[in-house]
Amino acid sequence: MSKKIEKYTFYTTEWQEYLSQLEEKINESAYLPKYHLYPKTGLMNDPNGLSYFNGKYQVFYQWFPFDSFHGMKHWGHATSEDLVKFKDEGFALIPDEEYEKNGAYSGNAFEYNDELYLFYTANYKTDTGKLAKQALAIMDKKGTITKYPKNPILDGAPKGFSQELRDPFVFERNGSFYMLLGGGRFVKGEQTGFGDIGELLLYKSTNLVDWTYQGTIDLPIDKGYMLECPSLVTIDGKDVLFLSPMGYEKETYRYQNRFSSIYLVGQLDVEKRTFELEHVDELDAGFDYYAPQSFYGKNQLPLTFGWFGCGEQVYPIDTEGWKHGLTTAQEMRVVDGKLRRFPTEEVQKQFADKQTIRTDQLLLEYPYYHLQFELNKKQDSTICFGTKDDFWQLNLDEKKETITIDRGYLAKKIDTEYGMKRTCEIAELADNITVDVFVDNSFIELYLNEGERVFSFRVFLESEQTTISFSKETEATWAYFE
Ligand code: FRU
């Protein structure tokens, strides 16, 4: 275990022994989840290449396998029948070519002629800054992944744009192939590093390998200084565009994390390069959510996974050698023009043995449960989860019309630089609010009204048992993960 980890190290078989030992150590962690995908070693970030291909879900992810910091990005791979149990498929992309010498960054998957095309950004640094390169790898039905021999398929950014141009998202519309790339444009003098204004660039192709730049998409929103991780799905006739802007302006309650993830509902016109905007909002009010990717699952079900993390957070268990994970797979609907996302039926089915009780205190033995209760918007409420000296809490403030998650009472403090509280406004919600809390040990997803608002966040409680104290008698339904 004494190998020195360089930031830009890529995997070779020489690392196998080290990684096996690290995996054994991590298996002892008290904070591993059971139904969230997490890295068997090292750091996991963005979900990539999400698809239903060859009769299975294919879930790829950004992965630095050697330690719990952001280093050379590989693509890890897992497959799943149900998006609850995941089979580890190991490395999908190892950045061992010159054009990707600083990592295989994020991208998506597109099925074509019975093969899965994996688009990604080849991270390439020089002494004077980055050079934007996009690359392709193709997975066949046997699961063999081959990098396209003529990579990169796109080299450099258009004039006036930052070379931080990345995260290809390829889709089909009106019989043509399109690629979205996130980036930024320079408007001031300096022409290096990130741009000054985030931009979404559109490319077109007839064969998925030769791409021509079309221009930027006109987005009538704050775009920060850089847009990351675009993805697009159509739900009930509406286009839903997902973006992860850096430098998004903070509001009183929204956009409190270092970076934000937003969704836009409306209509994308690829010819005019416009997005007719009907609604825009943040995707998640929690502390630990970023860079989601949306896709169509089995039977064209619109699904999304997010990275259960954001930026370079400091966690109390960083020395364990593993970090972050992905959210559950969430099914999406558009209700009254707004997006809702909620764990898939498969995830919900894992909590079958439901019990209901009216109480002001509930003791749950294991930290893998689904708890449901209702809140009345017109009454202040406080609900604590944990033990007397180590808990997190939910507060409903009737006057302010807000719900707040507070991590300030935890024994193991988390990423305090970015604050201990996250709040969302509930003025627009109906008087009775259904709260669903899915706890998977240190991974928590809390939903209001089946995804009208969502908080994703980590906690590291010291006890396996959780006492849930309600400020008044409440009817609560719970079930353990089976
Ligand atoms: C978002 C991101 C992407 C990039 C990847 C690198 O979290 O910064 O823009 O491709 O992570 O790991």
Automatic annotation (TrEMBL):
One Gene Ontology term from the biological process aspect of the record: sucrose metabolic process
Stretches assigned to coiled coil: none
Organism: Enterococcus plantarum
Family: Belongs to the glycosyl hydrolase 32 family.
Glycosyl hydrolase family 32 C-terminal domain segment(s): 364-476
Keyword annotations from UniProtKB, A to Z: Carbohydrate metabolism, Cytoplasm, Glycosidase, Hydrolase
Glycosyl hydrolase family 32 N-terminal domain segment(s): 36-340
Pathway: Glycan biosynthesis; sucrose metabolism
Subcellular location: Cytoplasm
InterPro entries listed in its UniProt record: ConA-like_dom_sf, GH32_Enzymes, Glyco_hydro_32, Glyco_hydro_32_AS, Glyco_hydro_32_C, Glyco_hydro_32_N, Glyco_hydro_beta-prop_sf, Suc6P_hydrolase
Catalytic activity: Hydrolysis of terminal non-reducing beta-D-fructofuranoside residues in beta-D-fructofuranosides
Gene3D superfamilies in the cross-refs: Exo-inulinase, domain 1 (2.60.120.560), Glycosyl hydrolase domain, family 43 (2.115.10.20)
Keyword S-adenosyl-L-methionine: no
Main location: cytoplasm
One Pfam family cited in the UniProt record for this chain: Glyco_hydro_32C
PANTHER family cross-referenced by the UniProt entry: BETA-FRUCTOSIDASE
Enzyme class, first EC level, given as a word: hydrolase
This enzyme's EC code(s): 3.2.1.26
Gene Ontology molecular-function annotations: beta-fructofuranosidase activity
GO cellular component term, pick one: cytoplasm
CDD domains given in the database record: GH32_ScrB-like
Function statement: Enables the bacterium to metabolize sucrose as a sole carbon source.
Protein name: Sucrose-6-phosphate hydrolase
